[in-house]
Here is the input.
Amino acid sequence: MFLVLVALSRWPGLFPPSFSVVYALAFCGGVYFAGTLAWWLPLGTLMLTDVALNFYYQSKGYDVWTWAVVKYQLVNYIGYVLIIGLGRRLKPQSKFLTLLGGGVLGALLFYLVTNTASWLLNPFQNPEYTKTFSGWLIALVKGTGGWPQAWEFFRNTLFSGGLFTGLFVGAMQLSAAESPADKTAGTQPEEEIEETQPEEASA
Here is the structure.
C-alpha cells in the first residue's frame, strides 16, 4: 500500500509539486528495512516510476530521453542514496521526534542536491541559472520563469518529508506497541501459575 502511495504521489497533477512520499520511502527504508532491501526496494521503486514518468512526458511531446535530462535524473539518485544512508544511521527504536527530524533533514538534503544539480547541469537551458553564486541562489530560492518559485518547492519538500515520515514511523511504532508478543509479555497461563506455587505444608 505504501509503495502504491509513492507511485501516486509522483504522478503529475495528483499532488502539489515536490509534495511527495519518496523522501519518506527512502528515509524509512533505510531505518526499517534490513540489509540490501533498504537500498534496492526504494531505489527500484523510484527507478520504475521514473521510467513510467518519462514515457508519460514523452507522450506529451517533451524530449526527456536526451543525455542532459537523463544525467540530471541520475543525479537525483545521489539525493536518494544520501537519504537512505541517513536512515541507516538511525534505529527503529529511536524516538519519534528523532526519526521525524531525520525525515525532514533527508528531504532538505534532497532539495539542496537536486536544485544545485539543476543549476550546474541546467538540462533545460534556463537563462536564469548563470554559473555564479547569484545564479545558484536563484536556483534555490526563485527558480525559473513559468514555474512556481523554488521556495514553494522547498516548502512542499520539507512538509511532505515530515508528514509522510511521521505517518510511517507512527504506524510502525503503534504496530510494535500492539504486537502480540508485547501483550503477552510477563503473563503466565493460570494453570502454570498454580503449578509453580509451593505446596501447602501437610497438617
Observations:
- Residues 2-173 form one domain.
- The two ends are 66 Å apart (CA to CA).
- The chain has a mean pLDDT of 85.
